[in-house]
Amino acid sequence: MHPWIADRTASFDSSGIRRVFDLAAKLKDPINLSIGQPDFDVPDEIKEATIEAIRSGKNAYSPTQGIAPLRQAILDEVQEKYPGQDRDVFISSGTSGGLVLAMLSLVNPGDEVIFLDPYFVMYPALVRLCGGVPVMIDSYPDFRLDPDKIEAAITPKTKMIIVNSPGNPTGVVASKSDQQAVAEIAAKHNIALISDEIYSRFFYDGEFYSPATDNPDTIVIDGFSKSHAMTGWRVGYVHGPPEVIATMLKIQQYSFVCSPQPAQWGALRAMEVSLQANVDDYRRKRDFLVQELSPNYELTSPGGAFYLFPKAPGQQGGEAFVERAIEHGLLIIPGKIFSKHDSHFRISFAASDETLQRGTELLIQLAKSS
């Protein structure tokens, strides 16, 4: 390692997803089921609102906490969802920015942070970046959020629990009762609870539940990247206890400064745009994949997000199976990128029906030849 490079950077690797993207660039007409973003475009009315903001000169820094109309609109929504709670809101540079600020605000060197395995790739890297210790709770084979396992992992060094429902990479939705139990456990032990709700709009069965309902100190991270296909716009938001939000804002002043102002005006318009038709379409895609792949793959039907996390067929590991798939022109993500286990792989069904059909046919062929 170069002598100038900080030791903390050696505690985690670059995202393995980038390797798949590099492979994708070398293939002609790949069947791409690897991308973790919607395949529909940003609605025109959101684009027009952003263009108007640019043309009208709204191009400077916004206040660190975000433009007042957007912040107020989100705060009104939060107060309606959680009446009587003392919650503050700010606009972050995407949900990733919100996660970075939450970690920097709350995690001291040596603090332990609990989350499920499989996990979103950023969780262990960000914990280590802050000098913290990731504590990964094995959730195989059904990827359930088990309150008993969470509580058993708590030590005097535990500082935070992260819940991600619907989850990436599994798409699994934690039950209301399990989330309620974890919310109560966090409150009982005075542990920070982060609820990563970026996939909250992609919810296919029943009604969405947030642990903030039962634990008013829950820090909720959400945004517009997935719900409105605005992944490149970098507009997220965080709401939680005012003192925690103020600390996160203090760090944002010296790091991200603010979310891009024109994109915030687009996000304000996005709050008025329903994309339920897209969500219904993704539910249909989910049902198609589960029906087609279930006879040949061990899998848990996802209740949200746009991912499926099947077990690799036969005796091969997930990475070996993904390499076989890529050799046949199918791009999927090895499960070991999200896990200590090398047994599964991730499919994104944020793709056209034609791509899903081609990918499904190839996956069935690969399973039968394993």
TrEMBL record:
Every Aminotransferase class I/classII large domain range: 29-358
Record has Repressor as a keyword: no
Pfam family, one: Aminotran_1_2
Gene3D superfamilies (alphabetical): Type I PLP-dependent aspartate aminotransferase-like (Major domain) (3.40.640.10)
CDD domains: AAT_like
Coiled coil ranges: none
SUPFAM superfamilies membership: PLP-dependent transferases
GO molecular-function term, one example from the UniProt record: transaminase activity
Required co-factors: pyridoxal 5'-phosphate
Superkingdom in the source lineage: Bacteria
InterPro entries hit by this protein: Aminotransferase_I/II_large, AspAT/PAT-like, NHTrfase_class1_PyrdxlP-BS, PyrdxlP-dep_Trfase, PyrdxlP-dep_Trfase_major
PANTHER family xref list: ASPARTATE AMINOTRANSFERASE, ASPARTATE AMINOTRANSFERASE-RELATED
Protein family membership: Belongs to the class-I pyridoxal-phosphate-dependent aminotransferase family.
Annotated protein name in UniProt: Aminotransferase
Species lineage: Bacteria, Pseudomonadati, Planctomycetota, Planctomycetia, Pirellulales
